Amino acid sequence: MKLETIANQPVIQTERLILRPLRRSDAAFLELFGADARVARMTRNIPHPQPPGGAEAFVERALAEERTEDVWALDGKPFGQGAVLGLISLEQMDREQSEVSYWVVPAFWNSGLATEALQALIDANPHSDKTMFASVFQDNPASERVLRNTGFQYLGDAETFSVARGTTVPTWTYLRRLG
Q1: What is the pTM of this model?
Q2: For residue 98, what is the domain's CATH number?
Q3: Could you tell me the residue range of the domain that residue 94 belongs to?
Q4: How many independent structural domains does the chain possess?
Q5: Counting CB atoms within 10 angstroms of each CB, which of 66, 82, 88, 165 has the fewest?
Q6: Does the residue 58 lie in any domain?
Q7: Is residue 152 part of a domain?
Q8: pLDDT over threshold 60, residue 4
Q9: Is the pLDDT of residue 3 over 80?
């Protein structure tokens, strides 16, 4: 038996979710949902199609002790839903700042789960950040609403490469100052 330990990553409970560190057993869910072009195309780094072993490699990076990004599963199982309804992550930057990223499985789009998860992460502030940043693709207004609904302020336009799209995509960049 091998026990998984996650250094310095809290479990955060919301009304409908448990935000918990990834488990190796989550790889199958990540492979399934990441294979959905609708999910992959709205992220920077999920390839489409996914290569064999890609989800397992992602989980291993998320579990690494020397990681710079904490990743939480949006686990709805304790509330009668699936064990992985999406992911939310905080990538550590310098000067007490982090960049947040998230995605939700299509069956739960427009359900408020992303807003609930992001607000819980802001409230918990596990990196003791003074500022959180986020970018969303300009053709994804639902993700942009999540940021506005959780108090993020528009910072400007930019662009970033999407692995699934194989091209650079225009983005909106937001920031949230924390207590």
Answers
A1: 0.94
A2: 3.40.630.30
A3: 12-129
A4: 1
A5: 66
A6: yes
A7: no
A8: no
A9: no
